[in-house]
Model the fold of this input.
Amino acid sequence: MVSKENLSKKNILLHEDYFLAIEKINQDYKNLYNIKDVSRYISKKMLFDLFKQHRYYRLYKEILLRFSKLISFKNQNKNNFNYSSNLSYNTIINNKKIVVYTCIIGNYDILRKPAIKVPQIDYVVFSDNENLKQNKKGWQYQSIDDEIKKKCKNNPVLINRYIKMHPSEFFKNYDYSLYVDGSIQIISDVRKCLAQIKNKSGLAIHSHHSRVDVYEEINACLIQGLGNTEAIKLLNSKYKKENFPKHYGLFEAGIIACDLNNKIAIKILNSWYEEFFKSNVLRDQLILPYVLWKNKLKKEDVGILGFYIDYNPVFRRHVHRIDLNENHRLTDNYDNIYFYKK
Done:
């Protein structure tokens, strides 16, 4: 006769095999896009379509984007490629109250149903899109308070970042939170990501895939016309004036794991939003390393979820759904290619 304890252990192993199998399929899908011949075909087709549509300014920016990524990627330390081996199901955090949350303003992103939903986790979407109430796709719908909109000057970027960087305000009865960008779909069990949180910061995040510090990111933003150009130039001057060091690290902020009982984590996130709001740069990746430095934390004090979100088999990134108009028309034919508004 099988004891309850052994049965429970067997179920855990079965679940682990199931999760890992799904992650393997997802990784194979991503690898297909990373095959040089496939990625080159997709990239060339997009550039050719822009040329046919006489969208020359957008074509120019896309070429600059590829050039800047190529230069940065050659300079990047690629020792982090062995990603999944660091995230073991043996270190899953059990018996804790966990929430996964996202924020979609208007129609900027398509809400996607998690491929795997863990019963112990709550999945919450903050939105002002009433249509999502009727089609929640496995998420709990949470409307955005008018007071928050007013505090953020009704700016969609500020509203999104406020919710992103204030999990302790919205989830007071939880132990852990995982923010997931609206363009990212959950494919597997996210709990193992929480095990990567480091106590010193209370946070875990992905490192940036192609740049090593904010100075490189500032140059990339200026080349590509991302964010508020004048504010970014002022931020660059401020960092240099304060002797903010180079090579302090750079993170991709699309997924953030947080220990909600860690006071340092809450302080970092609150300061991140305050600096982001004051700077008006509209690019939050430019702010986080500076906030860590001001709080006497090193990049090594932050848990790393991996080298690159797109190499993480637990998630899949899609393009943002942006209004279909002549200046920035997007289609899913170019999934996994990055697009930027003119």
